[in-house]
């Protein structure tokens, strides 16, 4: 089947996810710089999550652009990814409201890890029927290393929350530049 509906549906869901996240940002009760200080954890968690959702949107676009058709398995793989992405606003708000407490931050990492696993599954479902994507992905060391890094961040978050958060930031930085494996694909 064609890929247009999958791409349009995914774009819509991702737009809703970003909308939900921004609606969680509350206006401060005051008009001074000092009134913004208590909101920094909420804003910082929002910024990182916005970047992550943007990274997934960008890489999802690259995946879909590379394939010529999708299968039923790929549709389910895509829904699996969207499910985990849809939980990002929840854990983002939880982390921000609890000022990077260990358990919410570990749960944040778990959701990021599951997004990574779901993305790997989707990529493999798509690559199974699309040789160009299979060649572009190669062994996907970057994707697998990211999943391992998230697991490290989860454990680290339990004992040193800001170090765990730094792991999540590091993974985002690794993916921030668009994946070059797809740049020269028609």
Automatic annotation (TrEMBL):
Top-rank taxon: Bacteria
- Keywords for this protein: Ion channel, Ion transport, Membrane, Potassium, Potassium channel, Potassium transport, Transmembrane, Transmembrane helix, Transport
| Compartment annotation | Membrane
User: Which InterPro entries does UniProt cross-reference here?
Assistant: TMEM175-like
Taking the record's annotation, the residue ranges forming a coiled coil are none
- Record's bilayer topology term: Multi-pass membrane protein
Q: Which GO terms describe its molecular function?
A: potassium channel activity; proton channel activity
User: What's its catalytic activity?
Assistant: K(+)(in) = K(+)(out)
Pfam families named in the record: TMEM175
**One of the record's GO cellular component terms:** membrane
Transmembrane intervals: 12-31, 37-57, 78-96, 108-127, 148-177
Q: Which family does it belong to?
A: Belongs to the TMEM175 family.
Q: What is this protein called?
A: DUF1211 domain-containing protein
- Species in which this protein is naturally found: Duganella callida
């Amino acid at each position: 089947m064609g890929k247009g509906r999958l791409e349009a549906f995914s774009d819509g869901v991702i737009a809703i996810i970003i909308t939900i996240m921004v609606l969680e940002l509350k206006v401060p009760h005051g008009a001074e710089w000092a009134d913004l200080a208590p909101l920094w954890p909420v804003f910082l968690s929002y910024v990182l999550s916005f970047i992550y959702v943007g990274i997934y949107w960008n890489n999802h676009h690259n995946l879909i652009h590379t394939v010529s058709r999708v299968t039923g398995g790929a549709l389910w793989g895509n829904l699996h990814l969207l499910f985990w992405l849809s939980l990002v606003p929840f854990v983002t708000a939880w982390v921000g409201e609890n000022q990077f407490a260990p358990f919410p931050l570990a749960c944040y990492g778990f959701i990021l890890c599951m997004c990574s696993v779901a993305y790997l599954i989707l990529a493999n479902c798509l690559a199974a029927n699309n040789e160009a994507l299979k060649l572009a992905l190669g062994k996907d060391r970057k994707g697998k290393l990211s999943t391992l890094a998230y697991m490290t961040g989860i454990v680290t978050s339990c004992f040193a929350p800001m170090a765990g958060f730094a792991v999540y930031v590091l993974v985002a930085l690794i993916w921030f530049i668009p994946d070059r494996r797809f740049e020269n694909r028609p």
